[in-house]
Design goal:
The protein is of the alpha+beta class and 458 residues long. Helix content is 33%, strand content 27%. It is globular and about 60 Å long.
Length: 458
């Protein structure tokens, strides 16, 4: 078992990892920027070391600074969390070169699956359904037009190195395709240093379903069921739940088996997430595999009882999976809401500042993952997510009622948040009846932000 782990992240995910390490009696080292001096995660680690000024490029993205601390403090493992360097294949390789275990897949697998065009080929060869599209990268807009004509409009021009909605443009006609091709390629080149793009048929108004996988170094792979991440804003998830209310048992079994095939085909190791979209006819298609711990992993933990971070460390220590597929049994329903320091009424503008007053919800079936405390400064330099409220109930209706109650208890003053929007979503008739898709929030934002009286019944 690993003895000392450096946590190369900040905020709530650093807190989450540090808690798991403490329960496992593993020593920890936290790295922090000057903006995070005194943050909660720095107080939970065995040791904390400042690695630079506030900008992420000078601290959390500074590979040399992170690795210098890891080697000087004699860490034998490094957990990257999510974001920052977590899906950087160069960093994963450098960690290994330093003789430190990277708690995640090897760099070559991260690179392979980070190339979305290559990932499509791997999945197609493994019999995993993929969205109809080009066979590899497309070099010119003219070539993209020919492919789009065969697929039928609308189509997506997507960056092979894209992520977070960047490097992706929609084209509804041949007249729009040239501009979409140029914009997607240019944005991807600026953001990721790779302007390669491919063409995909656009699946209108899909649902977003993902499967959590665990894979050890002995070739064994299992899945922990699915998460429904359909409620999104600009391709960023807002509310997640497990199990999905939109798929039946036959579809669930088929998608789970496809997720395991996907992980095996990629030679995957550690925790990963296979993401699918589901069309209106119940057809599912692979879109990507995330090679890190997901923000929304707690909903899976709540329904399975499996501590995913603990399993990551167990696998990274060279040990075999502690579960078989038959061991994984889900119970009840879990929902997660992401609380962001942002202003939904002002185009979701980030709202950094000082937390004046804070009250976090609790009680039966409620979990809050956060790094907040009264007086803490929300920095403008990092992601605006400040907390995750997760609830568990025997049924979906019970989970919804519990989430309403939890959000009513949540109090954050000093900065604006999306608290009200999350609360209104829990009353949406379309959400309650599982009639949403990935564009639901954008289409209904005005109504969701309207301050109307809500009844406490479903």
């Amino acid at each position: 078992m690993l003895k000392r782990i450096l946590v190369a992240n900040r905020g709530e995910i650093a807190v989450r990892i540090l808690r798991a390490c403490r329960e496992m009696r593993i020593e920890t080292v936290a790295v922090y920027s000057e903006a995070d001096r005194g943050a909660l995660f720095t107080t939970l680690a065995t040791r904390a070391v400042c690695i630079g000024p506030a900008p992420a490029k000078d601290s959390y993205l500074n590979m040399d600074a992170v690795l210098t601390v890891a080697t000087e403090t004699e860490c034998d493992g490094l957990h990257p969390g999510f974001g920052f360097l977590s899906e950087n294949p160069v960093f994963a390789a450098k960690v290994r070169e330093c003789g430190i275990v990277f708690i995640g897949p090897p760099g070559e697998i991260i690179a392979q699956l980070g190339d979305k065009s290559a990932a499509r080929r791997i999945m197609r060869d493994a019999g995993v359904p993929v969205v109809p599209g080009s066979d590899g990268l497309v070099a010119t807009a003219a070539e993209a037009r020919k492919i789009a004509e065969k697929l039928g409009y609308p189509v997506f021009i997507k960056a092979t190195a894209g992520g977070g909605g960047r490097g992706m443009r929609r084209a509804d006609s041949a007249a729009e395709l040239d501009g979409a091709f140029s914009e997607a390629s240019g944005e991807a080149r600026a953001a990721f240093g790779d302007g390669g793009v491919y063409v995909e048929k656009l699946i209108e108004n899909p649902r977003h379903i993902e499967f959590q996988t665990l894979a050890d170094t002995f070739g064994d792979v299992i899945h922990l069921g699915e998460r429904d991440c359909t409620l999104q804003r600009r391709n960023q998830k807002v509310v997640e739940e497990s199990p999905s209310p939109s798929i039946d048992e036959d579809t669930r079994r088929a998608m789970g088996a496809a997720a395991v095939r996907a992980a095996k085909a990629a030679g995957y190791v550690n925790a990963g997430t296979v993401e699918f979209i589901l069309d209106g006819d119940g057809n599912y298609y692979f879109i990507e595999m995330n090679t890190r711990l997901q923000v929304e992993h707690p909903v899976t933990e709540m329904v399975t009882g499996v501590d995913i971070v603990r399993e990551q460390i167990h696998i990274a220590s060279g040990l075999a999976l502690r579960y078989t597929q038959e061991d994984i049994v889900t119970s009840g329903h879990a929902i997660e809401c992401r609380v962001n320091a942002e202003d939904p009424e002002n185009d979701f503008r980030p709202c950094p500042g000082r937390i004046d007053h804070l009250h976090l919800p609790g009680g039966f079936g409620v979990r809050v993952d956060t790094g907040l405390f009264p007086g803490v400064e929300i920095s403008p330099y990092y992601d605006s997510m400040i907390a995750k409220v997760i609830v568990h109930g025997r049924t979906r209706n019970e989970a919804v009622l519990r989430m309403r109650r939890a959000l009513e208890e949540l109090l954050v003053t000093g900065v604006k948040t999306n608290h009200g929007l999350l609360y209104m979503l829990m009353f949406s008739t379309d959400f309650l009846r599982s009639r949403t898709d990935t564009g639901f929030i954008e289409r209904n934002l005005g109504a969701l932000l309207s301050p109307v009286e809500k009844e406490m019944s479903l």
